[in-house]
Structures are given as structure tokens and as C-alpha cells.
Amino acid sequence: MCYYNGQKVTRAEFIRLKGLEKAIRNYNFLNVGVHNGFNYAPCAILVPSEDGKDFEIVQAEWGYVPGFVKTRAEANIFRAKYTTLNFKSENLFLKEDGKRSMWSSAAKNRRCLVLSTGIVESRHVPKIGKKGQELKETIKYPYYVTVKNQEYFYMPGLYNEWLDPETSQFVNTVAIGITEANALMRQVHNSKLRMPTILTEDLAYEWLLEKPGEERLSAIARTQIPSRLLDFCTIDPDYRTAKEATPRDFPELSSIDTAYLDFAEELQFNHWPDDLEPVMAGSERPLGTTVESTVRTYYQPGMHPQAGLFD
Amino acid sequence: MNDPKAFDIELNGVVAHVTANTIKSVKVFHIVHPDRKKPLNITIAENSDGLKFWTSVPEGRQEEAEFAGKIIAAYIREYRRNQLCVTITDKKLPAPNLFG
After folding, report:
1. Where do the domains of chain A lie?
2. Please, how many CA atoms are within 13 Å of residue A76, restricted to the half-sphere of its CB?
3. What pLDDT does residue B98 have?
4. Is the omega angle on the peptide bond into residue B58 within 30 degrees of 0, that is, cis?
5. Nearest to A20 among B23, B53, B90 (CB)
6. Are strands A153-164 and A230-234 parallel, antiparallel or unpaired?
7. Hey, is A134 helix, strand or coil?
8. Among A122, A246, B7, B27, which one is least packed by beta carbons within 10 Å?
């Protein structure tokens, strides 16, 4: 018989708890409010478990490092030269020139999901000169964008398990899929006209745990969430240092054109169900409608899920 | 039904922030105190008699785990009760028109 925290437990329970200890040792980062990609800080990603039927949460550095990079110094040089925080979903398997893309192997074998509560993008507004003319220089107004009625959402990721020779430890590195911006994000991220791909729960499941073909994977990676399913607000520009997105109004900033609420937005890769499309002009979404975002957990036959906590 | 992924609870007169995480298919609550006290991870385990109990992971903070666990369980029960109310209201048929 074993004891855990002074409580008499079975050997199997003891092993389970000890295994859990090991798994959560590095999980304090889950509370970070805002991850700044350019710090290459660790974030949480979901990767398939060995049997491919469930998933694990693991830590990954945001900023993909390919396998041919040998040392941490080389990795730093690589990241300084190439921005690999994101992968362009249009180039998942093929580049513009028709050659195989650097992401193709990861797209086939190392897909993951990146969990997020919201994204921060900056709207660039030209400064006005003394004569009232628009200058090239811009002021950046950060926006915090979330998915309505969802605390968390999933973005498709590609990861690589990279061996850091200095520590002899495997380090996961990850890139997040981006796609063509919708009407809202074209205004918010007006310098690039791009946005992160945000997946429905079903597509997230398919991306992570199923084996779709190249065409299907490309279509999933290009998913465009309709603007009307997103909420947004301007936030304090100190979000990078504060690591929190604090709402703040900018009276001088013109408001976002929300005409997209009045008509069905045409997006080539809108894979979000129509019944989540709220609405005709002037009407409200019905109260209590939520986008389900439950995490699926698979239990092997004969294996009992963790005891119910609140019954 | 979705349980809350992040919420605040009151522990000994101060507000602590809790995040719920699923790690290795196990629900783990990560509690961050407003002061410099070390964050606490707690989960539910089962003793050799089959009874459930809250425990800290790693070991060593059993008393704190039991105290925080009870408050978290109460919070989630209340949250679920409120969620149920929303669902029932949402699905309720409109009242029949008495004057049609």
C-alpha cells in the first residue's frame, strides 16, 4: 500500500498521481495572459497521444525551428532571419512556385492545436501632418479579438520536436496557421490583411486526430471564421509588458465598420456552421446559444475516467 | 456542458485565480494567489477505500488542497446549476397565445 500526501492510496493511484506530477511540472505558463511571439516563450499546445486516439498538452516554444538546425545559436540565427511564428495556410504543402513547402512534412506528421482565449493585432492609422495630409508613419492601436461565447478556441499548429544539444532535451517548437482576413480583421490587421485560422471544434478534432488528405488539410488550415462570430475591443498598448490585455478607449480612433453584421459575409473558406450565423439585420442572437468547445477525452475500454469531481 | 476554464475564488479573505486544465486526461486546477505564495495545483484522487479526496500535486500541501478543493467544487456546482437554468430557459417553448 502507498501513501500520497498522507492518504492511503492503491499502487495504481499512486503511480497515476506521480505521473501527473511529472506532467504538470512545467505548467505555470498556462496563466500567462498574453504571449508575445517574438519572445519565443513557451505556450501550451495539444498534440496527439502515441496511440493517436487522445491528446496531450505539452509545452512548446512559439517559433518553429526545422530539424536541420543543430544548435541553439543556429536556432536563434534562424529565427532572426526567418519569422516562423506563423505558417501561411495557402502554402501548407506547395509554395507559390509549385515546389514542396518547408511545412509539408509537419503538415503530414506533426499537426497540433494551439489554445487561445484571444488574439492581439494592431490597426495602423496614418499620422496626420501639419497641413492635414496623411503621413507614411502610422500609429498602432492594438485590438483584442475573441470568439463570441467561447472562452477558448483552437488554432491549427505545426510543431517540430527539436533536440537542443546543449541540454540534450527535446524542445517542441510551433507555428500557427494564418489565413486571409475576414471583414473585421481586414480593418484591424490592416497592414497585412491576414488573421489566425480559428477552427470549429469538429475541424480541430479532424486536424489533430484524423488523417485527412492534403487537399482537405489545406482547406481546414484556410478556414475563415466569419466576422460576426468575433468580439473585439481596443486595449492598452502596454499589453506586451503587462502580459494582460486591458481594454482602453481611444476617442480619436474611428470606429470599425460593422456592416458585416447586416449581411451574410462571403468567405471562400467559411467552414463554420450556418446555424451559428446569427441573424438578419437588426435582430439579436438568441440568448443562451453557445458554441460548444468541450475537450474530447478518450478513455480506453476498461479504463475509468478520473472520478467525478463535483457530484 | 462546459465547466468554467478560468474563474476567481475567495480563499482566506483574498481572491485567488483558478484555471482548469486537462493534463493526461486528468482535471488539474491551478490556483494563483494574489500574494507571492507559490501557485498550487490540485486534483482529485481516490483513496484505498474508494473515497475521493482533493490532493496537491506535487505532494506536500494536502491541507491547502482540501481547503481550496472544497471551495472550487462549490463554485463549479453553483456554476452548473446556473448553466442548467440557462439551458432550460433557452429551450422552453413559447407560452401559448391565449388571445389568438
Report:
1. 29-276
2. 4
3. 42
4. yes
5. B23
6. unpaired
7. strand
8. A246
List own/partner pairs for A107-111 with CB under 8 A and 24 or more apart: A107/A158, A107/A214, A107/A217, A107/A221, A108/A214, A110/A47, A110/A158, A110/A159, A110/A160, A110/A161, A111/A48, A111/A156, A111/A157, A111/A158, A111/A159, A111/A207, A111/A208, A111/A217
Contacts of B60 in chain A (CB under 8 A): 5
Q: Say what the pLDDT of residue A101 is.
A: 94
Name the more confident of B38 and B47. B47
Burial class of residue A9, CB neighbours in 10 A (0-12, 13-18, 19+)? buried
Q: What is the pLDDT of residue A285?
A: 39
pLDDT value for A174: 92
CA atoms within 13 A of residue A165's CA, in its CB half-sphere? 9
User: How many helices (H) and strands (E) are present in chain B, helices listed first?
Assistant: 1, 5
B-chain residues near A297 (CB < 8 A):
22, 25
- ipTM score assigned to the predicted complex: 0.72
Torsion angle, alpha carbons of B8, B10, B16, B19, to 10: -40
Cβ separation A9–B73 shorter than 8 A: no
Q: Does B94 touch chain A (CB under 8 A)?
A: no
Q: Report strand pairing: A111-116 vs A153-164.
A: antiparallel
Low-confidence ranges of chain A (pLDDT < 50): 278-311
Mean pLDDT across B55-73: 93
B25 and A1 in contact by Cβ < 8 A? no
Q: Which segments of chain B does DSSP mark as H helices, in order? A: 62-91
How high is the pLDDT of residue A35?
A: 62
- CATH number for the domain formed by residue range(s) A29-276: 3.90.1680.10
Residue A265 near residue A284 (C-beta atoms within 8 A): no
Q: What percent of chain B has pLDDT over 70?
A: 79
pLDDT attached to residue B83: 65
Chain centroid offset of residue A235 CA: 19
B18: closest chain A residue by CA: A31
* CB A65 within 8 Å of CB A40: no
Query: Nearest Cβ partner of A21 from B25, B57, B90?
Result: B57
Q: Do B45 and A9 touch (CB under 8 A)?
A: yes
